[in-house]
Amino acid sequence: MTLLHLSPVWWLLGLGVLAGVLFLLQRLRVRHREVAVPTTLFWKEAIQEARARLLVKRFRHPLAYALMLLIGALLLTALAGPRTGEDGDVRHVVLVDGSHSMSFDVDELTQYVADLPASNRSVILCGARLLPVLGPGEDALLLPRRLQGVVPAQAPENISRVLRHLARTQTTGSPTHVHLVAVPATVDTIPSGLRVHRYGVADDSDDPRIVTLGIAEPASGAWGVVDLLVRAGPIPLSGGDGYRLHVEPALKIKSTNDAGHELRTWRFVDVPARGQELAFTLLDVRPDGVAARLPGAARRVQLPDRRPLRVTLDDTLAEPFGAVLAADPAVELVSDKPQLVVRAQGSTVGGDVPALELAPAGSQREAMLLHHGPGIDPDSFLRAANKDLGLAQLDGQRLADAAQRPIEVRTEERARRGLTLSGDLMTEPYDFVPSRDFPLFVARTVRWLAEVPALRQRVAAGEPLADAVGAWTEDIEGAGATSSLGAPFTPPVADRYKTADGDTLVAALLASPRASVPVRETAAAPSFSSGSNLATLFLLLAFALLGFEWWAYRTSRVP
Amino acid sequence: MTSRVFAPDELYDAEFLASLRTLRIVARRVTGGGRFADQRSKDLGSGIEFRDFRPYAPGDELKSVDWNIYRRLGRVVLRLFEEWEDLPLYLLPDVSESTVLEDPPRLIAGLRTALALASISLGQHDPVGIYPFADGLVSKQRPKAGKRRLLRFAAELAAIPNGGATNTPKALRAFHALKLRPGLAVVISDFYDPAGLEPVLAELRKLRHRLLLVQLVRKSDREPDLQGDVRLLDCETGEHADVSISGEVLAKYREAHDKFERDLTKFAAGRGVGLLRLDVEEPVVPQLASIFEGRHLPV
Q: What are the residues of chain B with a beta carbon less than 8 Å away from any beta carbon of chain A?
């Protein structure tokens, strides 16, 4: 029998503490309760008779103490998580390859881990750093939550390092079984003496697969479209002309195809983004024209919804908002069923939708009053709005200097999101309208009101960011990855990055968790005994003994 | 030493007093006129039951002359009849601390028993005397008769001071020393004397009176409701005994108690003494009615 939550030493220590506490309580328990009786005639006779068996009398207290100690020990053992039937001291370590090229079904992996003996198993994610995601005794159901949101990082040397460490630390009486959830090519050599079980994708790493799926803001600057990047490999330099990329639904977009060093890149520009899902499959077209779908070469991606925003403009505000809105490719001016409205404060134009309202001059002290729905934290809302509206880019200092007063922005709770602009900004000396900030502000406000999510570009770590332009970036973790102006940016590790303008996140993520290739093992799955939990049995025993102790006390068999 | 004061209506409520009338009716239905025992006087007098003849002496009443014998034998003789004497009732209620300790106190049942028996005797015009005892006789009162004295007896019983240790042999010796006219002595007690039962029985044997023992008992006497480690304090002597209640100790206790009961019963049976075990937690009068079942006092 093994204990899941306590080592034998701690169990013994706990038992010792319990024994001491119970002993003290037992001493306190032996306190005579005074009872007045009509006569002690008969009691004296009874005591005299019983005194002859002094040893039994003295022994009754230790018996009661031993009974309570046994009950306490059973409860302590039940809490310690006793298990039986497991494979002795065999240690099971599950190493999960955290690189971007690795894809596995989390539910299947969870089931696999659950079948291993709980007391001696651990799961380690080998990415940019080693991340223990499941410790001994922890329930396997914790695995999906702990793997959620994990960013991939290619660091095969970490896996090899862990294998060497495990080989060094395993003992004769406590062998280690390593369960490798990784592409076989990730690990070159397995240290001797270590038993390794492979669990993962098919061991046909020579076949090409899609390794990168990228979505970027369109280089054309148009609204409602995105640029796509697909990269596959390794593709042999010779004989590689038969590889084709199949897209479903088909894209009527011309693509370019770069056959580079073991990687082939396809670029799709101005792909209409309506929130639809695209599936990319790599095909091997043989000389006879028959195309075979390569295993591990299918990926899906969800495009953002970039349809134009339906906006209604109050006629009284055609000047100055009309021209700006008409020039915004993300805006479609409509007269009914708008998604949002630009109107004068107090007007009912457009109905009950998010609105940019203009307050009459002199009626509002704040330059901007941001409205949020109920239950929203005002501070968080203001911080997010500051970023989304690009308020930091506004030349607020100029406005404040011109008006000789601070420019205030405040939040207020209302039924829905909105923004009320002070009419003072439209007048002298603010002159907000003719400034270059005004169109940018209106465009961002419209997108903010419609709650358009920011586009996250997806690239693979270790690969140059296609069409990267402009000065780059600092990564949020402070790794200091930068590139010189004009040079392609190559993220060294999978992580989130912020561009210079502060509002574009570049993230490297695993491909769609819905793997299009079913995960299968390369070898017959070893069977391990996960044991039986004895905690319930120990609890029942403890309660049964408690019931016996109560009965014995009531019938005066124990003091 | 504690003393408890009882209000008369606490001891003798209306229901109890009504039940006394029922008890007297039951008693009268018994042959013998409802007396507790035959009390045949040594004297020959003018009763209704013929006993003997004796020669006429000057001064004798002529109505006692047996004229049939004179006609036949020519001799003047007198017919003599049984002379019935009254039967004094001497009540000895135990008023020691042990009778007031528990709830309900045994003393209440004891005093009710005393009053019930007194009501019967008073109804038969027999004198009744009360001799409460604890550590010796508490008070002495000459026997008095008369039906109308019942309520006064009730008040006197209620006013008896209670509490204190028990010394039954001493009390019985004092009672014996009073040299009262032979009657029926009723000892109403739990008989829990610190000296044990034997000295009590020894003094009882010396009494010249007919005896009726009313032992005041309750269920917990034999089956005490005690658990764990207890210090038992004797309410009269103040002695204590530390006991770890166990099954074995309880068994020994019951053995000692049963022996006590057996010894008392054996004494009563051997001496022809009436013994009534009165449950103090049950109504007193129905239990006393059993005295009149048959012509002999219950043992």
A: 98-99, 101-102, 106, 190, 192, 194, 196, 224, 226-237, 239-250, 252-253, 255-257, 260
